[in-house]
């Protein structure tokens, strides 16, 4: 298994209502597979602009890269999806600028845009762009939601009290 969860599958297939339900239930919007793919990557790859917009509104990280160093913007298959991601990146950059100038997040977003522009160019052979990205470290938020255990809603009275009878004997 690749650690692909229900949100990843729903995003990949463009099921925005399922994505909304899963996020409301507490699934992490930025959880990743072993290959570093998150729901935003899957939605962008599938060209599902409505799901991309939903995930970005739910704080999906638009500059998060998979293990190949690809961001959702680079994986986007159509103009509407690319525009939705770019708009979110621009809005986030505008809201994180400090009075002194560019913030760290804004610089990261600019770097991601440059990588995206480079990926749109034809490959000129070799692995020139791969060394720049580096491996991504997975944190607890990338593994999945930390939900409390749920109690069974079904009474197990049909199993009987064999243990209680043995204790009394």
Provide a compact summary of the structure.
The protein is mainly α and 169 residues long. The protein is 51% helix and 0% strand.
Q: How would you describe this structure to a colleague?
A:
Residues 83-169 are annotated as: Disordered. This is Ankyrin repeat protein. The protein has 169 residues and is an all-alpha fold. It has a single domain (6-122, 143-168), classed as Serine Threonine Protein Phosphatase 5, Tetratricopeptide repeat (Alpha Horseshoe). Helix content is 51%, strand content 0%. The protein contains 10 helices and no strands. It has helices at residues 6-13, 16-24, 39-46, 49-57, 72-75, 79-95, 104-120, 130-133, 140-143, 162-168. Helix 1 (6-13) runs parallel beside helix 3 (39-46), helix 3 runs antiparallel to helix 4 and helix 6 (79-95) packs antiparallel against helix 7. The protein is globular and about 60 Å long. 29% of the residues are buried. Mean pLDDT is 76; it is low at 123-135.
């Amino acid at each position: 298994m690749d650690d692909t969860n229900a949100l990843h599958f729903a995003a990949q297939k463009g099921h925005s209502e399922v994505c909304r339900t899963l996020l409301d239930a507490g699934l992490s919007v930025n959880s990743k597979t072993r290959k570093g793919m998150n729901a935003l990557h899957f939605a962008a790859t599938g060209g599902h602009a409505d799901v991309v917009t939903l995930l970005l509104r739910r704080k999906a990280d638009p500059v998060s890269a998979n293990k190949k160093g690809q961001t959702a913007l680079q994986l986007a298959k159509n103009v509407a999806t690319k525009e939705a991601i770019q708009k979110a990146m621009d809005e986030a950059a505008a809201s994180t600028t400090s009075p002194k100038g560019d913030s760290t997040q804004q610089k990261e977003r600019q770097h991601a845009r440059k990588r995206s522009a480079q990926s749109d160019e034809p490959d000129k052979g070799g692995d020139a762009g791969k060394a720049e990205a580096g491996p991504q470290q997975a944190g607890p938020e990338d593994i999945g939601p930390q939900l409390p255990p749920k109690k069974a809603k079904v009474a197990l009275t049909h199993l009987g009290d064999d243990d209680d009878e043995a204790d009394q004997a």
